[in-house]
TrEMBL record:
A Gene Ontology molecular function term of the record: protein serine/threonine kinase activity
Residues annotated as domain Protein kinase: 12-316
Keywords: ATP-binding, Kinase, Nucleotide-binding, Phosphoprotein, Serine/threonine-protein kinase, Transferase
EC number(s) reported in the record: 2.7.11.1
GO term, biological process aspect, one: cytoskeleton organization
Keyword ATP-binding: yes
Name under which the protein is recorded: non-specific serine/threonine protein kinase
SUPFAM superfamilies: Protein kinase-like (PK-like)
Comp. bias (Low complexity): 179-194
Enzyme class: transferase
InterPro entries: AGC-kinase_C, Kinase-like_dom_sf, Prot_kinase_dom, Ser/Thr_kinase_AS, Ser_Thr_kinase_AGC
Pfam families cross-referenced by the UniProt entry: Pkinase
């Protein structure tokens, strides 16, 4: 029997860049033998070693392989390496990501938001059922397939790859629920640990080490404070995403990471429009959904007892969870060629 050939980068033609990050880039590529298109994440070994990211990349690979066949996660098809780089070959979704969609059209209609959120809820439920906490959910990591459905990507900060989350030096005191805790007011900015996109990622230093915590706007209070955190951080991020989909900006956004953290820890949510009037286009159900997800106390947060309580919220009234993926979303990418990257900005 012939030994299966191990793929190499020579088997692919790199056509154009899709995104660029701190540790590498993602390219649209075409497999020479079949003509099939893929997204290839190329990670420079030297950069990953220098920034202590090898463990995170291994965890990301293991998690994506474990999700093989999931309709909610971008498929990882091959992994291989060269002397200088690591390569993750994934399915190419030419609908772009939700961050690009927001930049293109601004806030989304609530009907769109409801459908997108429902698909993300199913994705989170599937991950948690497999023992995975994503930890970096945000519009950039929600990719849109050719039929308009969402898939989760970028597991560089997920539970298996998220080490040392409690190991940072406390400086300024804060209170979360009934627990006294401390928060580091010293933070530095690096680009995405996954190599997908240029979004900012916070690192907190302790014992001369730095550990990625996530993207500032989407980090849960317990993660900022270095408290024990689990599945509830993904439900917090869903609340931030819901607000951003409806208003066009994240609820705690500010000019610096420190100010974003202060806003998150204060817990104040602004539901007013540009005229400082109650946003009438946001339903009471959506406001309640956001408020319950953005509860600073994890044990009182919607989703703490599992995805079923999220799915039971009135915002999803009338949703048929069993046939959700059979429905056609309101936005379906219109691409002229399979190799179009127009929806990625």
């Amino acid at each position: 029997l012939a030994t299966p050939t191990v793929p190499s980068i020579q088997d692919f033609d790199l056509l154009k860049p899709i995104s660029k990050g701190a540790y590498g880039s993602v390219y649209l590529a075409k497999k020479r033998s079949t003509g099939d298109y893929y997204a290839i994440k190329i990670l420079k070994k030297a950069d990953m070693i220098a920034k202590n990211q090898i463990g995170n990349v291994k965890a990301e690979r293991a998690i994506m392989m474990a999700q093989s066949g999931s309709p909610f996660v971008v498929s990882l098809l091959y992994t291989f390496q060269s002397r200088t780089s690591l390569y993750l070959v994934m399915e190419y979704l030419n609908g772009g990501d939700c961050a690009s969609l927001l930049r293109a059209i601004g806030a989304l209609p609530e009907e769109w938001v409801r459908h997108y959120l429902a698909e993300v809820v199913l994705g989170i439920e599937d991950l948690h059922g497999r023992g995975v906490v994503h930890r970096d959910l945000k519009p950039d990591n929600l990719l849109i397939d050719a039929e308009g459905h969402l898939k989760l990507t970028d597991f560089g900060l997920s539970k298996l790859g998220f080490l040392g989350r409690r190991d940072y030096t406390p400086q300024s005191p804060h209170v979360l629920g009934k627990s006294n805790a401390t928060s580091s007011s010293s933070a530095s900015i690096n680009s995405s640990a996954s190599g997908e996109g240029d979004s900012d990622v916070i690192t907190a230093s302790s014992l001369h080490r730095k550990h990625a915590l996530g993207t500032p706007d989407y980090i849960a209070p317990e993660s900022i404070l270095g408290l024990e955190s689990g599945e509830s951080v993904d439900w917090w991020a869903l609340g931030v995403i819901c607000y951003e989909f409806l208003f066009g900006v994240p609820p705690f956004h500010d000019t610096t990471p420190e100010k974003v953290f202060e806003n998150i820890l204060s817990g104040a949510i602004d539901f007013y429009d540009e005229n400082r009037e109650q946003a009438s286009y946001i339903s009471a159900e959506a406001r309640d959904f956001i408020t319950r997800l953005l509860c600073r106390e994890p044990r009182r947060r919607l989703g703490y007892h599992g995805a079923e309580e999220v799915k039971a919220h009135p915002i999803f009234k009338g949703t048929n969870w069993d046939t959700l993926l059979d429905l056609q979303p309101a936005f379906v990418p219109q691409v002229e060629n399979i190799d179009d990257t127009d929806y990625f900005d």
